[in-house]
From TrEMBL:
It holds the Pfam family NTP_transf_3. Transmembrane segments: none annotated. This is Bifunctional protein GlmU. It comes from the Bacteria. Its EC number is 2.7.7.23. Residues 7-167 form the MobA-like NTP transferase domain. InterPro entries: MobA-like_NTP_Trfase (IPR025877), Nucleotide-diphossugar_trans (IPR029044). One of its GO terms (molecular function) is UDP-N-acetylglucosamine diphosphorylase activity. Keywords: Nucleotidyltransferase, Transferase. SUPFAM superfamilies: Nucleotide-diphospho-sugar transferases.
Length: 199
C-alpha cells in the first residue's frame, strides 16, 4: 500500500447535472464511493474535499474511512479545493512527500491506473506526473512536495490544469489505455451508464 495521500475533489455543485452527481448510482455503489474505493486500494490516506451538499456527502462517506474536509469557497473553482485539501493533508502530516489529485466524476480512473501514476512517480520523484489528454495534461496528477507552496496559493478556476500548463517542462505524462471522461450532464451519464457493468 502506497503512502502518498490521495486528494479526491468532490466539492462541485453539479449544476449541469441538476442533482448531486457524487450520489449517482455507479455499479453497486455511487460515483463518489466508487472513486473512494479505488483510491483506498492504493493509498491508506484518502482525503475528500466537499463543498455543495457537504453534510449529506460527509454522512455518505462516514463508514468508508476517508477523511473529508469542507471547502467553504468551493463555488470559486477547483483551485480553492486543491488548496483546501492540501492544507488538511499537511496539517495531519507536514512531512507529506507528494499528493495525488483526482476527480470524483471520472469513473474510468481505477486502482490499476492510479498505480501506474505512482509507479511513474517512484522513477522520477521530482517530476509532476500527469494524465495525457489530447492537447493537454490533466488529472489524475501527482505533485511532489516542491510544488506544495504553489498549490496552496491556487484559487478560483486556476486549478491543476493551469498549473500543469505553466510547468510543462517538469511534467511526465501517463497515457491511459482507455479514455478518461468526466460526467457533467445527464446526457453524459446516460451515455456511459453501460460502463458500470465493467466495474
Amino acid at each position: 500500500m502506497d503512502q502518498v495521500p490521495i486528494l479526491l475533489l468532490a466539492a462541485g455543485a453539479s449544476k449541469r447535472m441538476g442533482q448531486p452527481k457524487q450520489l449517482l448510482p455507479w455499479g453497486d455503489t455511487t460515483l463518489l464511493r466508487h472513486a473512494v474505493r479505488h483510491a483506498q486500494q492504493v493509498s491508506t490516506m484518502v482525503y475528500v474535499v466537499l463543498g455543495a451538499a457537504h453534510e449529506v456527502l460527509r454522512d455518505h462517506l462516514s463508514d468508508t474511512g476517508a477523511i473529508s474536509c469542507y471547502n467553504a469557497a468551493y463555488e470559486s473553482g477547483l483551485g480553492s479545493s486543491i488548496a483546501c485539501g492540501l492544507r488538511t493533508i499537511l496539517d495531519d502530516d507536514p512531512t507529506t512527500p507528494a499528493v495525488l489529485v483526482l476527480l470524483a466524476d471520472q469513473p474510468e480512473v481505477d486502482a490499476a491506473y492510479l498505480r501506474r501514476i505512482l509507479a511513474a512517480h517512484r522513477l522520477a520523484e521530482t517530476a509532476i506526473v500527469a494524465t495525457a489528454y489530447p492537447q493537454r495534461a490533466g488529472v489524475p496528477a501527482l505533485f511532489p512536495k516542491d510544488d506544495f507552496p504553489a498549490l496552496l496559493e491556487l484559487a478560483g478556476d486556476a486549478g491543476a490544469g493551469s498549473y500543469l500548463k505553466n510547468n510543462r517542462d517538469r511534467v511526465h505524462l501517463v497515457y491511459p489505455t482507455t479514455p478518461l471522461y468526466d460526467l457533467d450532464t445527464p446526457e453524459e451519464y446516460r451515455r456511459h451508464e453501460g460502463d458500470q457493468e465493467h466495474h
